[in-house]
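Form 12-C: Joint structure prediction
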Amino acid sequence: MRLLRMYKPFTSAGLQEMVVYRVNFLFFLLGEIMKCFVMFFVWKAVFDSSDGTTIYGFTYENMVVYLFISFLSGYLTYSDGSYVIGKEILDGSIAMRMIKPVDFDMCFLFQELGGKILQVLILFVPITAGVEIYRFIITGEILFNIPLFLLFVLSMVLAYLINFFFNLSYGFLAFYLKNLWGTDIIKGVIIDFLSGATIPLAFMGGFGKVLGYLPFASLSYTPVMIYMGMYSAGEIAFYLSLQVLWLVVFIAVSKLILHLAMKRLVVHGG
Amino acid sequence: MENIMIEVRDLRKEFRKAVKEPGLKGSVKALFKPVYNTVKAVDGISFTVPKGEIIGFIGPNGAGKSTVIKMLTGILTPTSGECRIDGKIPTKDRKKYVKEIGVVFGQRTQLWWDLALRETYMVLKEIYEIPDKEYEERMAFLNEVLELDDFITSPVRTLSLGQRMRADIAASLLHNPKVLFLDEPTIGLDVVVKDSIRKAIKKINAENGTTVILTTHDLEDIELLCERIVMIDKGKKVFDGDISELKRRFGQMRELHFELKNSADFEKLDYKGDFSFGEEDFTIELKGTIVDVRFNCDVVSVEEMLSYTLSRVHVKDINVKDADIEEIIRRLYLKGGEMLDAASENV
Amino acid sequence: MKRILKMHLIFIRQDLKKLMEYKVDFLLGAIGFLLTQAVQILCLGIIFSAIPALCYTLNGEVLDAWSFEEVLFIYGFSLIPKGIDHLLYDNLWGLGYWIVDKGDFDKYLTRPINSWIYILCEKFCVDAFGDLVVGVALIVYSLVSMSPETIAEINPLRIIPVVLVIPFAVMIFTSVKTGTAAISFWTKRSGHITHMCYMTNEFAKYPAKIYNTFVKTLITYILPFALTAYYPAIYLLRGESWWSIPVTVAVSLVLFGVSQLIWHRGLKAYESAGS
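Section 2 - Result
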């Protein structure tokens, strides 16, 4: 409780910033979701072109759900702390954060969470509702499953935290990598691909199976597959524990890099 | 009147501003029901500037200085009223008009960050369609006045603030404008650089007969450069006249600043009772053991004030200061209405 | 006109010089762009490995079909006008995202030159080489790997109108960016609106027939990005939709006019409100 009270100002600041830029945010979102609609039509043509009704175990209806839910989870679990931290490290303003009696990574986390609140409000309900209505129209039955949904939410939260600590580690690397912009693009592309955000890992055969165990799948593929009911109870348990494992790993890694980076900051100055 | 370069008549500018209450609640409120206020940034200003004059344009932050400058440079259209520069209306046929003016905003450079200075001037040469020969002569002149040679091949981003300001001023003068607008040209510069920039402005004004409009917060800028000042506050003109006139009227205020050893001693000081200060000639303030006295040295000399004070109380530290521009401005507020009359007499 | 070209050349030279100065930054950025495209193409490849060709069907009847090579060609072609616009006129993004917002637009108004042209000239975006290289590579690769019968059907004369229409296709991109960036004169920031409209060009990378009527109308007439990619590309390959060539010219001119109108209205608004 004390923790929450202490970091509440950060959350509120993040939320206020989001409210101020709400219109920009909405337009940006509409632009991004355009890609889903492009693929919606492309997949339709692809399934029309195929002889069977499924491709790699996905029906068209599955594919559409996959597209939008992976967009949703990709967006909500996205964390750009790396860029902010990197910039602050490069221009030296990070010193301002270090002189405050709060935990460095926690203030980033709570600031970002503030922004997330609004994103969840704007995105979560419309997209899941849309997807459910779509599923109902196509299949004629209600496929919404409350336990699965709750597991999905849990998996999303884990995915976000993994993403956050992964990005934090990456951001601290700004001490060593001078160019964040270029490497950021490269990082984004690679993660999108390896996490199944661009195309389901199931489409990649044996290679996709291997990717399933890597941390990238935990970022987006796992929650989406849980939502879609593509995993058995055993698989859900397995992949959720895998997520927890990766979360622990990245928390440890970020602490380690932070420790090394601070040493460097103290020695070389900001 | 062919001698008039700038003529401003009853210039007004109103803005509509969204009002946001502070805090999260305010943000949410603004989201659903934005509230707007009309702000009169410039509220009926008139003045004229003869050819070749350097005029100082002063006033506190938010007084409307930059709004006036923006209207004079054609960036903003007045809500009503008129300004003519060399007979032209700025926002009308702007492309032609801006060829006759140069503008420097001290707070932000108009140069290109990555371009070497020489190339920056090449770009401006094309923009202003300056013939080769004229360009070379002009460059030679500006080089001499502003000493650009040391850094002419460096990219702008590597210049020091002082170099950058010189480069910016040169850029605004390349096309030999009739009027030069300088918005805070010495802001953030050290004493030596300030001095060289002032000298350059004076020289350019003397040799080219360029009319200069200068906004600043620095009294020294005004004192060393301007023959005349226009002072505005809250969008209205409060003073218009010679600098010597301003000093004569308001520059005689001095500030006596000292720290008492024992704050109870304060009662021993009765300036008002022992001297015959008028209502506006004297103010006193006590903060802890620190005493601030502002007085008119025409009424009581500095020497008298000092000896009076030192003979009555024990002080740890004492000093006397000239009234600065902020002080003059503050006094002008007090007399707001009266000054307006004085100002109109001067026109 | 000549002075604008001269001025533009100075900026181009400068940005090329900068590229050499910051080699690593440029390389990393370019690799980033290349990878982005490479991953998308890889995904296309994965999708196509499951189907013989991309079909357009109506009520179970196949009405049209595109081979993997044809889709690659369209995709590659789409990057050319987009890349040219990106290369030459990238500064419009800056206008919508920060130039007006930070009050830096004032300086454009104190110069004796059209502010729009001035903004366009000011930046030469070398990152766009990534798009252009991938585009050309895809075009070449897809042509080389097409069956001889398909190649034999291409009438070389069709290349002429297609090449001539490219500048108009570029103008579609530039006009969309201009019109939406000018909104910032009212709102201070409009980069996100530009982003939203610009993203519509994603639709243009694939055959326009696979979309429903709403999307088809949108990308042919309103934000006509299909005219910058699918139509000219398919005309070149098959001689289909020849009408799209004059339509592209006409639509781009109209769009240009509209964008200039918005720009000038925006300038008026800016002059009365400032920033």
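Section 3 - Comments
The interface with chain B takes residues 3-4, 6-7, 10-11, 14-15, 18, 103-104, 106-107, 109-114, 118, 122, 268, 271-274 of chain C (CB under 8 Å). Chain C has one domain: 2-52+63-273.
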